[in-house]
Amino acid sequence: MTPTHASDPGATPGLSAADAPPVPDARHTPHPRHPRHIPHSERAPHSQRPQPRPAEGRRPAFFRSSTWRAFGYHWLSLLLAPFALAYAVSTVSLGASFLVTFVGLIIPAAMVAAARYWGTINRSLAAALLGRPIDAPPPFTTRPGFFGFLRSGLSDTAGWRALAHMGVSFVTSVTAACLSISFLVTGLGCMTHWFWSRWLPPQQAADGTWHRGSQILPGVFADSFWWQAAYFAVGVLFTFLLWPAINNGMARLQASLAAGLLGPTAGQYRVRDLEASRSSSVKTADARLARIERDLHDGTQAQLVAIAMKLGDARDRAAGTEVSPELQHLLDSAHGTAKEALEDLRGLARGIRPAVLNDGLDTALESLAATAPLPVDLSYRLPVRPAPAVEAIAYYCAAELVTNAVKHSRGTRVSILVVEEGADMVLSVKDDGTGGAAGGGRVGTGTGAGTGLAGLAERVRTVDGTMRISSPAGGPTVVTVFLPLS
């Protein structure tokens, strides 16, 4: 559709009351406050195990729920470890086998990327059973095309670290489960030896006597009271002291191994903090630009309107009296200069950050389409409102691309499409001109960066967006901008 032109609240002032400063309206209503992103450096470190609650901390370790959750973790790890080891060995062996075919490397590349799911499962188990929340590594991102996916999969650090965990955890899981189960069963067996030893088959000693207790040494059987008491004491030691220490110690080892191999690396933490800092800087800059635009609109612009009105009134009064032509010319010139300064100020304010963006990107694009020299078809199908900084970047991209189409494309029509694609907003601007705007593909840094399409690409990259250009000779020219919604 081609939006109709809305009335311009910022028309050039004349000599009537219509030139009075506009009353601030809903355009300047600030956006609702968005949840503040907390950088990783400000968050409580996930690698630290939360302290047990006081009521549980006073209990003996054998009776703590955390001890038994760790015991359950050892059992689950023992069941999953063989499958994980088989997967890791298969991935490496398939990679070595298909290395000569090159194209066949797509299978190990996919298996490396899929190994991330093992990391997800183990992080969930560590959080639920060991009380050790672990941050997830950055999500897997794939490059376009077959070779792009091949390169992305084979170079996925998180996938390879998950495979390493599969191999190492097989040893630690089997060791932890065997030690924990052995100490617990030994302790419980010793504590109850007095009960179940009566069903042992009788054994004859060297002196001809018969015994039913366990044989400790040749001719020595644990069937007397003191031997049964000694067995019971050993059972108490194993069950209530040694087993919780071994069980929980191996659980801490497993948790540390999972945190070391399944969580982000120090470099990824650093990148995450830098991204959070950059996001905060972008939001702060956008808010500062909005404040400058609002101050110019409500302050300086209103003062210039008042000056223009006073000069116009003075000129009209002087016209009915006997004044020198020089004074009359001076009043006319001052009135014209004030009006020109007002127009320049309005253009500057629109360039800083259009006030219409406060009503949403859809309204801003409708205003852009209505005032464009060429007919503009606008299709806006975005179910949610993007972040303010993203809205501003999308608007500037659309405005610059429409201006380029008007100046250089020699086309007759422009279309703007805004849709949602996953977690991104896709802005597509198409004209029916002669094409040849730039080489196809992504636009990045290079000569001329900071101006034109290269400048738009730099602006888009400030929020981790990308821009693609398709402009074959003869047209049409299609510029597609991918921006995160949040």
From TrEMBL:
<dbReference type="InterPro" id="IPR003594">
    <property type="entry name" value="HATPase_dom"/>
</dbReference>
<dbReference type="InterPro" id="IPR050482">
    <property type="entry name" value="Sensor_HK_TwoCompSys"/>
</dbReference>
<dbReference type="InterPro" id="IPR025828">
    <property type="entry name" value="Put_sensor_dom"/>
</dbReference>
<keyword id="KW-0597">Phosphoprotein</keyword>
<keyword id="KW-1133">Transmembrane helix</keyword>
<keyword id="KW-0902">Two-component regulatory system</keyword>
<protein>
    <recommendedName>
        <fullName>histidine kinase</fullName>
        <ecNumber>2.7.13.3</ecNumber>
    </recommendedName>
</protein>
<keyword id="KW-0418">Kinase</keyword>
<feature type="transmembrane region" description="Helical">
    <location>
        <begin position="95"/>
        <end position="115"/>
    </location>
</feature>
<dbReference type="Pfam" id="PF13796">
    <property type="entry name" value="Sensor"/>
</dbReference>
<keyword id="KW-0812">Transmembrane</keyword>
<feature type="transmembrane region" description="Helical">
    <location>
        <begin position="170"/>
        <end position="196"/>
    </location>
</feature>
<dbReference type="Pfam" id="PF02518">
    <property type="entry name" value="HATPase_c"/>
</dbReference>
<feature type="compositionally biased region" description="Basic residues">
    <location>
        <begin position="29"/>
        <end position="38"/>
    </location>
</feature>
<feature type="region of interest" description="Disordered">
    <location>
        <begin position="1"/>
        <end position="59"/>
    </location>
</feature>
<feature type="transmembrane region" description="Helical">
    <location>
        <begin position="225"/>
        <end position="246"/>
    </location>
</feature>
<feature type="domain" description="Histidine kinase">
    <location>
        <begin position="400"/>
        <end position="486"/>
    </location>
</feature>
<dbReference type="InterPro" id="IPR036890">
    <property type="entry name" value="HATPase_C_sf"/>
</dbReference>
<keyword id="KW-0067">ATP-binding</keyword>
<dbReference type="InterPro" id="IPR011712">
    <property type="entry name" value="Sig_transdc_His_kin_sub3_dim/P"/>
</dbReference>
<keyword id="KW-0472">Membrane</keyword>
<feature type="transmembrane region" description="Helical">
    <location>
        <begin position="68"/>
        <end position="89"/>
    </location>
</feature>
<dbReference type="InterPro" id="IPR005467">
    <property type="entry name" value="His_kinase_dom"/>
</dbReference>
<keyword id="KW-0547">Nucleotide-binding</keyword>
<keyword id="KW-0808">Transferase</keyword>
<dbReference type="Pfam" id="PF07730">
    <property type="entry name" value="HisKA_3"/>
</dbReference>
